[in-house]
Amino acid sequence: MFYTEKTDNDCGPIYIREKGKLRCVNEAVRIEDTPSGRSKPFRLFGRGFSVQLRIESEVRASTSTKRKEHFVFTYNEEGSLRYSVKSLFNISLLFIAENVQHVDSLMGFPEQMAERLFVAAEAKQKFSDPENGSRALQLFSEAYGDLVLKSLCLRNRFLLVSEKLEEIKVFHGLQSLDLFGCKLGDSHEILQHLCSEALSSLIQLFLGDNNISNRGLQKLTAPARVMKRGLANLQLLDLSYNPISEEAVGYLSCFPNLRGLDISETNMELTTSLHQVLHNKLGFVHSEVLLQDFCHSHCKTQGWAEQIINQWETHILELSKLKTDLQREKTDALRFYGRHKFVRDTLKNKRKRTLDSGIGVSSDSGPPEKRPSSSSITVEDWDLLNSY
Q: Whole-prediction pTM value?
């Protein structure tokens, strides 16, 4: 809101632009007209002119919070707090990180700048946002591929695979994927994703101990066998500890670059015929010792998103522990009430046996026992009173 206060002091000439031309809205005071003959100091606005901006309190609070990010606060040798303004580049980087979900594409954006932008977005927990987290990850993955995540190790982390499947599908350019012991079976959704274009760069794939049968392997290799699509660059494949037979070897001939295969602890018997089939169809020879390429120590998560995967796992473990604790409390409560009922039934049966045995017993040496009064409180009455 703008307002002016009328003062006795005259202002200098004021011009406004109308239709591209300047027009004077007040006449300049000439020197001859002044009593003293001296010119008055030029003042564009009167002394009483002021400006008041009306800003909502919520907007003001959020704006002041964001503006604090533009400063770097430090202490000098005397212990006084000092601050300096961040560079325009850092301020712009924070702004883009805060609104990364609204960016259309990062194609062509320099990798060094993109890594700093990724770190800034991670610090603001943009990838943990349930609504925009997947979109933000996809934005980086489509532009930078294996720089975001080159290797992903999910060995024995079946909970992580189930809970974060949609986020895992976002990563493009993976070269190594370890799904050993993830309880996939023959119909898991991720098996269909393995032959998609998003994982065409995959070189190493570990699917051991997943209860995959011949049928599951047939479905996995169908896109590569029929449409020549998916896993074209696959070189190492681990199928150990799965119930597959010699028939499954025929499904693997669709991988032209395959140079290593682990089929230990399967239903295949290492016979001469199996050696002949592997040699004729795949060009493989049997190795008596485990190849170093199939050693688990070589598999680890690598890329910009490494910390994000660790955060997912920590969060899921906390949720799993919480569910376990709630289930344990429920079980303990059931056991408690079960014991109470057991004790109550035991007391009722003991009381009944005592009354039954007292009815048929008589003694001449002492006075006769007093018969229980009809007004005495029974066990059922006590239970009723305790229930209130």
A: 0.64
What pLDDT digit, counting tens, does each position of 138-169 carry? 999 999 999 999 999 999 999 999 889 999 99
Beta bridge partners of 2: 51
* N-to-C CA span, the chain: 67
pLDDT tens-place string over residues 313-363: 888 888 888 877 777 766 655 555 545 555 566 656 656 665 555 544 444
CB count in 10 Å sphere of residue 37:
8
Q: Tell whether the torsion through CA atoms of 180, 183, 185 and 191 is positive or negative.
A: negative
Q: Which residues pair with 205 in a beta bridge?
A: 177, 237
What gap in Å lies between CA 165 and CA 161, rounded to an integer? 5
CB neighbours of residue 36 within 10 Å: 7
Do 160 and 49 share a structural domain? no
Beta pairing partners, 24: 15
Residue range of the domain that includes 28: 1-54
Instruction: Determine contact, residues 164/319, Cβ cutoff 8 Å.
Output: no
Task: Give the number of domains in the chain.
Answer: 2
User: Phi and psi at residue 284, in whole multiples of 5°?
Assistant: -100, 150
Asked whether residue 310 falls in the same domain as residue 165, the answer is yes
Q: Is residue 68 part of a domain?
A: no
Do 178 and 35 lie in one domain? The reply is: no
